[in-house]
Amino acid sequence: GLQKHFHGNDALRGVDLDIPQGKVTAFLGPNGAGKTTTIKCAMNLLDRDGGELSVLGTDARLLGPDQWRRIGYVSENRSMPEWMTVPKLLDWLRPMYGEFWDRDFEKKMLAGFELPLKTKLHNLSRGQKMKAALLTSLAYRPQLIVLDEPFSGLDPLVRDEFLTGLLELTETEGWTVWISSHDIEEVERFADRVAILNR
């Protein structure tokens, strides 16, 4: 029954959605359908106007540090400190997650993503920035991974590399993944479940 209004207009009108644990759920719909609004309500970045919403068994409005250490969130519009290099970014984030942060896992992903270590974030390509965002959202081994249009602007080769790496990790880690996209082809080959949002 999720509802959200902007300036008297319905952005979300009675949305019912369930994201099953340990599965990859694709969240499909045209641009402007309300996918990002739904995700932002679930992540407590926007307040809902009606309905119920729980994430990891907690009301979305009450999400705090304990829950955020179990959620990896990557958005196409995610802002990062552009003046940092990838290693500096990792050094900055690591203390926020304490014992949850897995240094060995971080090193493995860093090598796998082939990210440049001396280049500042603002000089990285869009694909490299998305990999850096994914790395910083997975190094603490979250239970739930939320990806909001992560492939936007990525070339097909980088997208396939990104997807292959994510799928391998999801299978070995048993993660729950919620991924939004407006492109069915991007997600049809790896989603366990598909939810469609329109009008």
Overview features:
alpha/beta; two-stranded antiparallel sheet; 7 helices; 9 strands; about 35% helix; globular; about 200 residues
Structural summary, described in words:
The chain is an alpha/beta fold and 199 residues long. The protein is built from seven helices and nine strands, in the order E-E-E-H-E-E-H-E-H-H-H-E-H-E-H-E. Strands 6-7-8-3-9 form a five-stranded parallel sheet, sandwiched between helices. The chain has a two-stranded antiparallel sheet with strand order 1-2. Strand 1 (2-6) and strand 2 form a beta hairpin. It is globular and about 50 Å long. It starts with a strand and ends with a strand. 27% of the residues are buried.
Helix and strand sequence: EEEHEEHEHHHEHEHE
Proportion of β residues? 15-25%
Which residues form runs of ≥5 with pLDDT under 50? none
Structural class by secondary-structure content: alpha/beta
What would the average pLDDT be, to the nearest integer?
A: 88
What is the CA–CA distance across the termini?
Answer: 15 Å
Reported for the largest beta sheet, the result is:
5 strands, parallel
Query: DSSP helix count?
Result: 7
Radius of gyration: 17 Å
What general outline do the C-alpha atoms trace?
globular
